[in-house]
Amino acid sequence: MRRSNRFLKFTIGKNDKPVIRKFLVQHKFSSSQLHNLKNKGGLIFVNHKKRHFNFKMKPGDELLVVLNAEEPSDLIKPMKGKIDVIYEDNYLLVVNKPPGIASLPAKAKDTQTMANLVKAYLIDKNENSSIHLVTRLDRDTSGLMVFAKTSYAHSLLDQILHTENFQKYYLALVYGQVQPPNGLVDLPIGIDSKAFYMRTIDHSKGKESKTLYKTIENYPQASLLKLKLLTGRTHQIRVHLTAIGHPIIGDDMYSKVRDSRINRQALHCYRLNIVHPVTKVLLKLKAPLPKDMVMLKGVLRGEKNGRK
């Protein structure tokens, strides 16, 4: 199977569904994508001849799917600015988000977000500027974010998002020394009844939430943890670490403590291991620890001004 952005080419195998519609479903096309392919300008060819969804293929046939052109939404305005591109190809764009910027714009707000920056970046490259956000980060969390370049790539990524084919790793500086030093936090998370924008441990209505952690370094009154998300709940790491008595340094929303040593939660998505949904190549992507967390780590070690 070879693919460029809008042109998908398949060679039909003996285990593939022979009817085109069923074949496409087998290859993870959603119902909305099938609808768009049929009604919004998509095309299907078998052995260079135009065919319809009910056409029956045989092993060895060459299927070419031409995806419909996407119309970018006007809800997200392009805003030019610097973005740190970690990885890019015809299907994916992975960027390193700095702290202090939201992933997506809120309603009735024109402040710059990563989505606005990415849209402007894609327009400058004369590419489809529809925004397909696969992973988001809280405003004050830094690190790796994934955007898909087509709705089909987005659909494929969504299907592996919470599997071993899409592994998300974070680094966090937390208060105290965690015992045991390595473990699994398995506590259900739900919406906080006192504040809709917050989350809390909720054993009656909360959703299953699991976070693996490993202590990387201990300091006199703090620790550096590596964390792996096994589920993807809002504020999951922040809520779980608070629940076990080791909130993230700087996370005043959950720790109820303002810390002058850093002006945001010391949480960074530093690594993604993704089995590419199209090429099936394992991508191992990393983003370096940002300066404010490097400085904080030095302070926690007892280094003057965060430096030796």
Text of the CATH class of the largest domain? Alpha Beta
Classify the secondary structure makeup into a structural class.
alpha+beta
Helix fraction by DSSP (H/I, runs of at least 4): 10-25%
- Stretches where pLDDT is under 50 for at least 5 consecutive residues are none
Mean pLDDT: 93
Q: Tell me the series of helices and strands, N- to C-terminal.
A: EEHHEEEEEHEEHEEEEEEHHEEH
Main sheet record: 10 strands, mixed
Basic shape = elongated
The CATH architecture designation of the largest domain is: 2-Layer Sandwich
CATH superfamily of the largest domain: Pseudouridine synthase
Count of domains: 3
The number of strands is 17
Number of helical elements: 7
- Measured on Cα atoms, how large is the radius of gyration? 22 Å
Report the portion of residues in β strands.
25-35%
Q: Kindly report the CATH topology of the largest domain.
A: Pseudouridine synthase
Describe the SSE topology:
Blueprint lengths: L1 E2 L3 E5 L8 H7 L4 H9 L3 E4 L2 E2 L11 E5 L17 E5 L3 E6 L16 H11 L7 E2 L8 E7 L2 H10 L5 E10 L6 E5 L2 E4 L2 E7 L8 E10 L2 E8 L6 H8 L8 H4 L11 E9 L6 E5 L4 H11 L7
Parallel strand pairs: 9-16
Antiparallel strand pairs: 1-2, 2-5, 3-4, 3-5, 6-7, 7-9, 8-9, 10-15, 10-16, 11-14, 12-13, 14-15, 16-17
Enzyme class: isomerase
InterPro entries: PsdUridine_synth_cat_dom_sf (IPR020103), PsdUridine_synth_RluA-like_CS (IPR006224), PsdUridine_synth_RluC/D (IPR006225), PsdUridine_synth_RsuA/RluA (IPR006145), RluA_PseudoU_synthase (IPR050188)
Function: Responsible for synthesis of pseudouridine from uracil.
